[in-house]
């Protein structure tokens, strides 16, 4: 028996600890704190990461951006820039706005883009396209920015983009694949915003919601060179067999791009990038590390297994169940009481007509994998507080979840087959509901055993 194993741990104590650990993870990636950690001002000197800018040399200073964390990031930027900030436009998810002084927040639809996002993006274009070499743009980007900062290329309608996004998500495309397509169908993505703002100086602060933090994928990289091509975007459609599902305008745009009739996105080595600084201010790795430290403080042996968790949600749920069995039966890879932490982002191939999100589906699959296993608990959390098109952030299950479901007349396999994890977990009081957290650094999964 481990010296730290505590036989007084109970189900209630474990759940209380788990809630506390999730809270610590979210607190560690508070968007305002993340901005303040990288953006400092002393008089006219603005320090960003390892670079310094003399604000006295800039005629205009503006803020633009998009993402679920945009409101608190913009609040922090207003506080730091103070009277030197002239104006700004940031697009945020509906229901995520906060009181602002100089920056205009525009609420828009997510994950399917809408007219409000288009209007906000047009305002951003109008603001930055008139800037010159003596101006400064502070760009604030976070998860969700791809859908919120929406601006179709010529010949493509908003409805075309909506249909394409929906088709990709339903097919189970990864965020990297979805964004490779988006970048080649829009004006601001794939370095498009940097192009519009040039020759103004651009500083971009990013709260990453992408596995591994590739800059060009976070919100589709509006100020980052794009290594993907029109051919790569077309290959994504072929991979999922949706070439004929997407609108004709999308096919025509990608084919024109592959033929060289449409300019490519901004590429590495372009001179424009000499006027751009991109900085990641928060990530899944930071949240996972904070969760592990907090778990240790509660008396749990903790271990961050990975922050590169990917794959089909229900398959990953089975893996979480396998880890629970390993902890319960072999006291490893860390001794009980234990908390394993995994970060990343899974996908769901939608085959049914139910409600749910990737974390809820992952939790339901995990519940099936640990059926009957005592003294274990698994939680799957979307750090933005919104898992898929629902008001839940995820779900928490244990070895008794399936027995309780069957006693209530619920067939877990039927719910899983219908992609209906939300209703299944809701009926058992097993949803995690945080409300909007106004941050977004991918997902976290926790496997506890005691």
* CATH architecture group name of the largest domain: 3-Layer(aba) Sandwich
Estimated share of beta-strand residues: 15-25%
DSSP summary: helix tally: 16
Number of domains: 2
Q: What is the CATH topology classification name of the largest domain?
A: Rossmann fold
Rg (CA only): 23 Å
Fraction of residues in helix: 25-40%
Plain-language structure description:
With 450 residues, the protein is of the alpha/beta class. The chain folds into two domains: 11-27 and 285-449, MOFRL domain (glycerate kinase, domain 1, 3-Layer(aba) Sandwich), CATH 3.40.1480; 30-151 and 186-228 and 265-282, Glycerate kinase, MOFRL-like N-terminal domain (Rossmann fold, 3-Layer(aba) Sandwich). The chain has 16 helices and 15 strands. It has helices at residues 11-28, 31-38, 70-81, 115-129, 145-148, 158-171, 175-183, 192-197, 230-239, 248-258, 284-297, 313-330, 358-369, 401-407, 412-417, 421-427, and strands spanning 39-42, 45-48, 51-54, 60-66, 87-93, 103-108, 135-142, 201-207, 276-282, 301-309, 338-344, 376-382, 394-398, 431-432, 443-449. It has a six-stranded parallel beta sheet with strand order 6-5-4-7-8-9, sandwiched between helices. β4 (60-66), α3 (70-81) and β5 form a beta-alpha-beta unit. α12 (313-330) packs across α13 (358-369). The N and C termini lie close together (11 Å). Residues 1-5 have low confidence and may be disordered.
